[in-house]
Design brief:
GO terms for molecular function: transmembrane transporter activity. It holds the Pfam family MFS_1. Keywords: Cell membrane, Membrane, Transmembrane, Transmembrane helix, Transport. It is found in: Cell membrane. The chain is an all-alpha fold. Helix content is 81%, strand content 0%. Helix 4 runs antiparallel to helix 9, helix 7 runs antiparallel to helix 15 and helix 8 packs antiparallel against helix 12. The longest helix has 34 residues. The protein starts with a helix and ends with a helix.
């Protein structure tokens, strides 16, 4: 557990830096363009390469030293940040360097994610999986809990360049912690005789498709990621319609306290049974609170609903994580997590690709003062800028609830922990 905690501290710091950059980029792009579509494109480019290359990263994680892959992924992802910094420092005003930079960073993160996931299994016993999953989520959620608050304060007195420098500095700390753990662990010699990458790719797919429970769970999580992608991308333009960047940063950080609460509860309680039931109830609750987030323009109510929404996510993620770990052998987990990443998080990719267009050209016009829904639904949830996005969140929450309810009755998922 000691070695896991060391790596976890490094990833926590790295997550805070990455979250600050993501927040600053979304603000920067929106201020330059005033377009929700451009914000969603930036999110898509920061995400798509990681997802598409995850299977390759998973194969490499099963063939080579996972700690070395984490170091390479963390270190070289800084190239994208340097690219953005140079163009902004040179006085270039435009979103193209941002799009290129976040894409470069995303390519190298594809090496990090599967190796990090598989390393958790390397370092821990099955009894610690749930506790470790809660801790991993605390680190991952720091980008929502701490980063927006810090980035919002920094942006109120300076610009995105300072945040990029801070993020680059966090990579040194992360690499140091990984190197320290690597020196204290005897590396397991892996079978390097099999050079058929395509065969290994098929084995990664088979580890998922051969288990009905795992394949059903992956499908459910893909839909969950799709709906969460909407709130992640559209919250910024919705709030900026009636508040400034500093208020948005504080609001997002306060809202993300829910994730900390949920993760801490999981870490303390160390859930050991009832994973499928907890998964479904938490997912239905997340759908309800997502819909409520879009139903009002009150910052205080949005914060409350967001706290409850984010508090439910760690339970969903932990239960899904543990169910997969206990069903797939360790020697295939790198490939399995690589495939699971691309299959589940393709939901984010689709959401990022379409939500901005739907917001700008379909839902927002319907709830402007002269829109077709202004005289009906507009009287309930309000009219004007940002209210079309609110309607999108309401509909997304309803559908998310229904999917969780339907999948909750699938025997294949309930039988996974037996």
């Amino acid at each position: 557990m000691k070695n896991f905690i060391t790596i976890w501290i490094g990833e926590l710091i790295s997550s805070i830096g990455s979250g600050m950059t993501a927040f600053a980029v979304s603000i920067y792009v929106y201020q330059l363009t005033g377009s929700a579509t451009m914000v969603s494109i930036a999110a898509l480019l920061a995400f798509l390469p990681t997802i598409l290359l995850s299977p390759i990263g998973g194969i490499l994680a099963d063939r080579y030293d996972r700690r070395i892959l984490m170091i390479i992924g963390d270190s070289f992802s800084a190239i994208g940040l340097i690219f953005i910094f140079i163009f902004i420092q040179a006085g270039y005003v435009g979103v193209l360097p941002v799009f290129i930079g976040v894409t470069i960073s995303s390519v190298f993160v594809s090496l990090l994610e599967p190796a990090y996931r598989a390393t958790v299994t390397d370092l821990l016993t099955e009894e610690d999986y749930a506790r470790a999953s809660g801790m991993v989520q605390i680190a991952a959620n720091a980008k929502y809990l701490i980063s927006p608050f810090l980035a919002g304060l920094i942006l109120s007195v300076t610009d995105i360049r300072v945040i990029l420098l801070i993020d680059m500095a966090t990579f040194f700390i992360t690499v140091f912690t990984i190197m320290k753990v690597r020196k204290s662990i005897k590396n397991v010699k892996k079978d390097m005789n099999n050079n058929d990458i395509f065969k290994e790719f098929k084995e990664g797919v088979s580890s998922i498709t051969s288990d009905k429970g795992v394949s059903s769970l992956v499908l459910l999580m893909a839909f969950m990621c799709f709906f969460i992608g909407f709130i992640q991308t559209l919250m910024t333009p919705m709030i900026l319609a009636f508040a400034d960047a500093s208020t948005l940063g504080i609001m997002e950080s306060v809202s993300a306290v829910g994730m900390l609460i949920g993760s801490v509860i999981i870490g303390v309680m160390n859930i050991k049974k009832g994973y499928s039931r907890i998964l479904m109830v938490s997912l239905m609750a997340a759908g309800i609170f997502m819909g409520l987030c879009g139903s009002t323009t009150s910052i205080w109510l949005i914060v409350v609903f967001c706290i409850l929404f984010f508090a439910s996510l760690p339970f969903v993620n932990t239960c899904a994580d543990v169910l997969v770990r206990i069903r797939i052998p360790n020697d295939k987990q790198g490939r399995a997590w690589g495939m699971i990443n691309i299959l589940t998080q393709i939901g984010f990719v689709v959401a990022y690709a379409i939500c901005g267009i739907l917001a700008d050209y379909v839902f927002e016009p319907m709830l402007m003062e002269n829109g077709i829904l202004a005289g009906s639904l507009g009287r309930i949830i309000g009219v004007g800028e940002g209210r079309g996005i609110g309607l999108m969140l309401i509909l997304s929450g309803i559908v998310m609830f229904l999917f969780a309810f339907i999948f909750g009755f699938r025997k294949s998922i309930r039988a996974m922990e037996q």
